[in-house]
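Quick review question:
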């Protein structure tokens, strides 16, 4: 059985279909992992969700920050007024409610202990163990799947608190969890999330540390595959036990898959067109 992880797709259905064809996966036994950010920026967000949804149980998708933001936009009085133009066709789709319901039930983290890999969209707070990260992801999943999910989604978004110890109110706790799992790139020496700078490590301010390179990081015992960070200076960081496979499909870059079940990860990419 083969297991492939696929980077951020961002509505780019054509590259996704070409990549799937190149993988020659047997969907009766092989597994496809998707690191999230299925939607936004590309021309066919609805088509991407339909394609992955149709793969059934062999496809495992974690939620990305753009997916979560879409669910938040849906709670607005006029979603189209707050959505990027690339999302309008999805909002107008006849099967949109079904697609949104499927998206809302995606997990925030996925671990295969036998395989020795964890998948998350952006990363993990350095102070969390992987067990703690999974437990906290489950808190957010429960809230997203609850009947009153719309109420908390209206207050979920923002950059504060940026320290886990300060996340005392229930909605603050969920906001920090969402940011740590779907938006994190850098932290400071104390582990505080640094949310504004989004570019390369080389050009980062002096007090910005990549989440995976924090010296006190407590979640490096298992390999992690993630997306989110298209400006990252590479995809393989084995010294930190992490692999980041957002290679910029949203910005006219390639879409990348990584095979996880081989002794060393293997990569395959397709161009945007």
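Suggested answer, residue by residue:
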């Amino acid at each position: 059985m083969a297991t492939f992880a696929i980077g951020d797709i961002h509505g780019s259905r054509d590259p996704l279909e070409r990549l799937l064809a190149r993988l020659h996966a047997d969907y009766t036994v092989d597994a496809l992992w998707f690191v999230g950010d299925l939607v936004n920026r590309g021309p066919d967000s609805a088509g991407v969700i339909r394609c992955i949804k149709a793969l059934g149980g062999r496809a495992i998708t974690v939620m990305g920050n753009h997916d979560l933001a879409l669910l938040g936009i849906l709670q607005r009085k006029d979603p189209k007024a707050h959505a990027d133009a690339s999302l309008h066709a999805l909002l107008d789709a006849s099967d949109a409610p079904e697609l949104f319901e499927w998206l809302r039930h995606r997990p925030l983290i996925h671990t295969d202990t036998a395989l020795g890999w964890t998948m998350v969209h952006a990363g993990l707070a350095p102070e969390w163990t992987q067990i703690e990260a999974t437990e906290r992801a489950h808190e957010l999943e429960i809230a997203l799947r609850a009947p009153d999910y719309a109420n908390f989604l209206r207050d979920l978004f923002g950059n504060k608190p940026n320290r886990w110890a300060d996340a005392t109110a229930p909605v603050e706790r969920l906001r920090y969890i969402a940011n740590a799992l779907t938006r994190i790139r850098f932290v400071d020496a104390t582990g505080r999330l640094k949310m504004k700078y989004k570019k390369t490590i080389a050009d980062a301010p002096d007090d910005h540390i990549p989440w995976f390179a924090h010296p006190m990081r407590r979640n490096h015992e298992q390999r992690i595959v993630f997306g989110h960070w298209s400006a990252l200076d590479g995809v393989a960081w084995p010294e930190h036990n992490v692999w980041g496979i957002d290679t910029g499909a949203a910005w006219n870059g390639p879409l990348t898959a990584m095979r996880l079940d081989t002794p060393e990860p293997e990569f395959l990419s397709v161009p945007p067109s």
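Why it works: The radius of gyration is 18 Å. The mean pLDDT is 96.
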